[in-house]
């Protein structure tokens, strides 16, 4: 069993320590015992990113097409200065939360101002602030900022040596100094090695004794191919994992200063991945595993490349719990962990209307009027300038929320036998004699049920609603193809809360279906008479 190579430590720009990435590819047979709770391995005095962390994220084997879709940096739309663009499906579970925290800061700093007035420098600052806010929630003991090591001429074939098969195949032609041509169009295109495919060239370089090809020719082509792939920022999972390292910083001010001085780390082709690894390293492998219910399931789906709910929750709350309900629930002796406090950023999903999950109060009622919205395949962001959407709960609203905890079916009534428990939970008078009196008043026909409206009218008859009847909503979708004319822009709509609930599942309008999980009686007129896409 091979031993891992020792990686040196390099000083960062701010005097921090840069710990080099593991030289072994993640698919290697080498085994390294996990070190500290930061998800790193210890070799002497040097720490390297743990393969256990890599496997937790991707599973035992990552498909290159999935990994390729995650290779993008943070970039702003040329049509909406503060809107991030998502190139491919998959990394929305990182991009959408970052966008949400960016908008949270923007709404707090510039209420009522036009988003179009923002300068590139201001948007850069907002992005760094959003990243720092997420990292602050995830910090265990240190901030561990992951970045790519500088290129080394000694590792020419660490780069990508095959291209993924996509729906649209393109051919790239590279002419060498001797006039030979290397064509690149999938796994089986002959290259300059005399008929061998690019994949075979990599195999030949790794074990030349098993492939009948001139080693000198391999090394010559390797240098050329490495330069080509590095220039185009194309990476295999093994190559990427072998080239990353992290700086350890103690204070968030140092993190903000580092990203300000090295903004390219966020914007280069691997920027989203580097931030994801930074979040995981900062949280620590041990902490992540302790919060997940099933560590055997990777955080990124091995086929579709989308993030799990645990990863979404980690990005939004700093905790990698797998569920979206409030607090923990005991089911058959198993503790299923949910959201333990009111979140800065909310989360609502169309999957709740389909009864795949139950989103709790903490997510539906965040501290800021910003919600990440989930469809079955994608994450987008909803936000508003209306601060009253997230004003503190009134006693009646607390009662409504608690009542619904006893009303598991959402039928707006509970069995009359539950009245005493309900009143006790709300800290109302719950002596048996008084409860019996209230039961007779709330259920005069002795039907055995207590209606929600009757309960609220009895105990909270004159309380005014804190929620406005009308307000504006804005929606962000980072995928250009999901926007009009492929332009990533915020879509604005005017919302009205109707007198009665109109909740119903409408497969032709998933946006309204999702909004109704938060506001059951909502109706929205979107500008341009075009409902924004959740996908």
TrEMBL record:
Q: Which Gene3D superfamilies match?
A: EF-hand
Please list where the region (Disordered) is annotated.
1-40
Which chemical reaction does it catalyze? Thiol-dependent hydrolysis of ester, thioester, amide, peptide and isopeptide bonds formed by the C-terminal Gly of ubiquitin (a 76-residue protein attached to proteins as an intracellular targeting signal)
Q: Name one GO biological process term.
A: protein K48-linked deubiquitination
> What Enzyme Commission number does this protein have?
3.4.19.12
What Pfam families has UniProt attached to this entry? MINDY-3_4_CD
Q: Which UniProt keywords apply?
A: Hydrolase, Protease, Thiol protease, Ubl conjugation pathway
Q: Which residues form the EF-hand domain?
A: 394-429
One GO MF term: cysteine-type deubiquitinase activity
Q: Which InterPro entries does UniProt cross-reference here?
A: EF-hand-dom_pair, EF_hand_dom, MINDY-3/4_CD, MINY3/4
- Function, in words: Hydrolase that can remove 'Lys-48'-linked conjugated ubiquitin from proteins.
Q: What family is this protein classified in?
A: Belongs to the MINDY deubiquitinase family. FAM188 subfamily.
Q: By what name is this protein known?
A: Ubiquitin carboxyl-terminal hydrolase MINDY
Q: Which organism is it from?
A: Anopheles triannulatus
Lineage, broadest ranks: Eukaryota, Metazoa, Ecdysozoa, Arthropoda, Hexapoda
